[in-house]
Design brief:
Elements lengths: L2 H15 L4 H15 L7 H17 L12 H11 L4 H19 L11 E5 L6 H12 L3 E5 L7 H4 L12 H9 L5 E5 L9 H12 L7 E2 L6 E2 L5 E6 L7 H4 L2 E5 L5 H20 L6 E3 L1 H8 L9 H19 L6 E3 L11
Parallel strand pairs: 1-6, 1-7, 2-3, 3-6, 8-9
Antiparallel strand pairs: 4-5
Helix pairs in contact: 1-2, 2-3, 4-5, 4-6, 11-12, 11-13
């Protein structure tokens, strides 16, 4: 047997050992049998590489792998309270959602769990839309995959390209499953209102298919070219506003408005949540930095009003970096920030 034939036999053995849907496996085997006839053709190597790459992608899809849901309300509440200050109405809505999942699971209606409307968090930049989705995945014990829609201009980004195209790959939906290695992952559809005008209609069409339980059990990616069951995926969407989201997509979403934060709330978030996190990430001992109460107002609003907390996080990160540099330079081991000296530490 020549080397090309041996390689094909090896590829067949690999496919046989994979846990794939039977019809998909049969289709790949037929294609490999057809490839045997091309072993002496100049088109053999390109075709062999193409099908080899296809098999690698197919093998990495979690066709049956899944995580076990944790539907514990007290645990979920602890995670939400630990990660987010305030947002009581939103937390209650999430707990209600988890309660519905728990009741359906207890009644043996697990396949219908995701028929509830998909949550869509709507709010200004920095109001915590993405982090609340992360908390939901933690609370459920599920993995999280994020798909950014900002600037997306083609539905093929979601659905993939046909294998007839050179360098074709699966779309972002299948890649999200692959990265999480779980068929019941949480997929965050981030900023779905920020797609380009040119691609909006086609992208919204794919979103309808993704979010519709009558369709998403057999999602077709152009590259995979075989139905993939997305019915157990928990989709969560975010948007800055709903103006640019099609009516058909909105019908399948439950928009939840994210509130803007007051200065008083930002001070609590900065002191209780952000500063400890940034100190830990920067390797700075928590005893090395003390911020007086009257200095926080200047940290929260160094340049004017901002509805979100992203600017606050960047400001705290800048302060901690300066402290880290001073410590490394041997200029001191502990620093106290007051309203009088705050300007020395604020990032410019």
């Amino acid at each position: 047997m020549d080397s090309a034939g041996q390689e094909l036999v090896s590829l067949k053995e690999k496919v046989n050992a994979l846990s794939l849907p039977e019809k998909l496996k049969e289709g790949i085997m037929i294609r490999l049998d057809q490839l045997v006839k091309l072993t002496n053709s100049p088109t053999f190597l390109p075709e062999y590489d193409r099908i080899g790459r296809y098999i690698e992608w197919i093998a990495s899809i979690p066709w049956s792998k899944k995580t076990k849901d944790i539907l514990d309300l007290e645990r979920a509440r602890e995670i939400l309270d630990k990660n987010h200050h305030g947002l009581d109405e939103i937390k209650e809505r999430i707990l209600e959602y988890i309660s519905t999942m728990k009741l359906k699971q207890e009644k043996g209606e697990g396949e219908d769990i995701m028929r509830a409307p998909i949550l869509c968090f709507v709010g200004l930049v920095g109001t915590g839309k993405t982090t609340i989705a992360d908390s939901i995945s933690q609370a459920l014990g599920r993995r999280l995959a994020r798909i950014p829609f900002g600037g997306m201009g083609d539905a093929l980004d979601l659905r993939g390209q046909s294998r007839m195209h050179p360098e074709a790959e699966p779309g972002k939906i299948i890649k999200a499953l692959i990265s999480s290695q779980s068929k019941n992952t949480v997929i965050l559809l981030d900023e779905i209102d920020r797609v380009t005008d040119a691609g909006r209609a086609s992208i919204m069409g794919v979103l309808v298919e993704l979010l519709d339980p009558e369709q998403n059990h057999a999602f077709i990616d152009h590259y995979v070219d075989y139905p993939v069951d997305l019915s157990e995926v928990l989709f969560i969407a975010t948007a800055n506003n709903t103006t640019n989201i099609s009516t058909a997509v909105l019908d399948r979403l439950e928009p939840i408005s994210m509130p803007s934060y007051t200065d008083a709330e930002k001070i609590i978030i900065g002191r209780k949540y952000m500063l400890p996190k940034v100190l830990k990430e920067s390797g700075v001992d928590e005893r090395a930095l003390t911020i007086e109460e009257n200095a926080w107002a200047l940290i929260v609003r160094p340049i004017g009003y901002d509805a979100g907390i992203r600017t606050l996080e960047r400001t705290i990160e800048g302060i901690v970096r300066k402290i880290a540099k001073l410590i490394v330079e041997g200029k001191g081991q502990a620093y106290k920030i007051t309203s009088e000296n705050i300007k020395e530490y604020l990032p410019q």
